[in-house]
Amino acid sequence: MPATSAIDWDAFAKSLTPIETIQEPSQIEKLSKDYYHFSPVLQTQLQDKVANLVVRPRSEAEVVQVARACVQAKVPLTIRGAGTGNYGQCIPLAGGVVLDLTKLNAVAWVKPGLACVQAGAKLAAIDRVTRESGWELRMYPSTYRTATIGGFIGGGSGGIGSITFGQLRDRGNLQAVRVVTLEDQPRILELRGDNVQQVNHAYGTNGIITSLEIPLGPAYPWSEVIVSFEQFMQAARFGQALGDADGIVKKLISVHAWPIPSYFTALAPYLPENKAAALLMVADSCVEPLTALVQAWGGTITYTKAAQDAAKGTPLMEFTWNHTTLHARSSDPTFTYLQTLFPYDPDLALVEQCYRHFGDEVMMHLEFLRTEGRVMPAALQLVRYSTAARLNQIIQYHEDQGAFIANPHTYILEDGGRKTIDTAQVAFKTKVDPYGLLNPGKMRGWLERSGAEASP
After folding, report:
1. Is this structure's pTM higher than 0.85?
2. Looking at the DSSP assignment, which residues form a beta bridge with residue 376?
3. Going from the N-terminus, what domains does the chain have, and what CATH number goes with each?
4. Phi, psi (5° rounding) for residue 217?
5. Which of 71, 102, 106, 398 has its Cα between 20 and 30 A from that of 216?
6. Across 244-289, where does the E strand assignment appear?
7. Ordered alpha helix ranges (H), 145-246
8. What are the tens digits of pLDDT across the range 155-199?
9. What strands lie across the sheet with 335-337, from one edge to the other?
10. Are 383 and 338 in contact (CB under 8 A)?
11. In the beta sheet, which residues pair with residue 337?
């Protein structure tokens, strides 16, 4: 592809009329970034990466127009939702165009258990529409109020709701997508069923998702509950027991070792000093059986807010998943984090081993989810960062013990996720992005196929 410095960007922007373009440097800088700075490794690698132009289409037809212009000029194209990711997914390594899809935000239709939405629709906005007929999104990240559905599918993996519905890659959690290609003559393709996995969690490297059909779950009124425990492992085993309690309808089981609760300033009255905490979302109708389970495990409920009141103020979910890291970094910006999936073990032996081995250097934060029909903890541990070498030692220790690390300190798709090249995704990119213009430098399978190297 040609050097972006050789492009006349004023002329290129004018050729896209009447599509909205942004050329103001500070705006381009802002719209070229996500929350990559959660990682000190990525902060060094990505802080100087910026686009040359931001484009905001309002329709699928305008997306096709942008795709055609980028192919003709061989201009790199990086897709952006709300920029709430943490791994540099939407940061343009090679400059070029950032395609901001937030103006494609319509909810096209809602049926029982299913909705069709445009990629730029915010998750909270989708729920406002679907709840009118008694349905809601099955799962969402802690950035629910700002994240877009296209960004979540392109860069996410699970979140609040995963305790019931698993992860995004599980069959049935994404029904269909419409994708614009970057061929000489861009096409609009519809992928259905298992074919959606060709673009699911692909960082926008092999197609521009413009709309999606997403399954919905029943819209329960959700109560928020905080439970305090004397010891972390007591709280962790309670979390496992609650996850296994099929009769209690739940959406969130988030368990935190002290001192993590001390970083939740707004919740301070409900988080006793030196105590572990479980932050929960359960159906209003299940608070009574939850209370009995808490008593059985020796916990103390310090906070309960029914669904009617939970809609007011900061939702409890904004202290969980990656928002936990955000709150901790507000107190101490040297904190970073890991993403760990522990093997299935109802006794949580490896969780306890890692908790005791690292102490306060790697503070335990568990998010329980369901995978392959079993409940197990994923951890987003807070790490007191010292050096990259020590961080790699911590990662290696977990892997040597049998834990799986989804490394949040790399922008390479395969290195941060399943650690294997998805040949179906690479093959799809070969067809729909033959010049390698889409979010270049992020897909290892493509880089190895083309003999290129990832160069931050």
Report:
1. yes
2. 369
3. 4-100 (3.30.43.10), 107-218 (3.30.465.10), 222-305+340-405 (3.40.462.40)
4. -115, 165
5. 102
6. 250-256, 276-283
7. 149-155, 162-165, 232-244
8. 999 999 999 999 999 999 999 999 999 999 999 999 999 999 999
9. 335-337, 382-384, 362-363
10. yes
11. 382
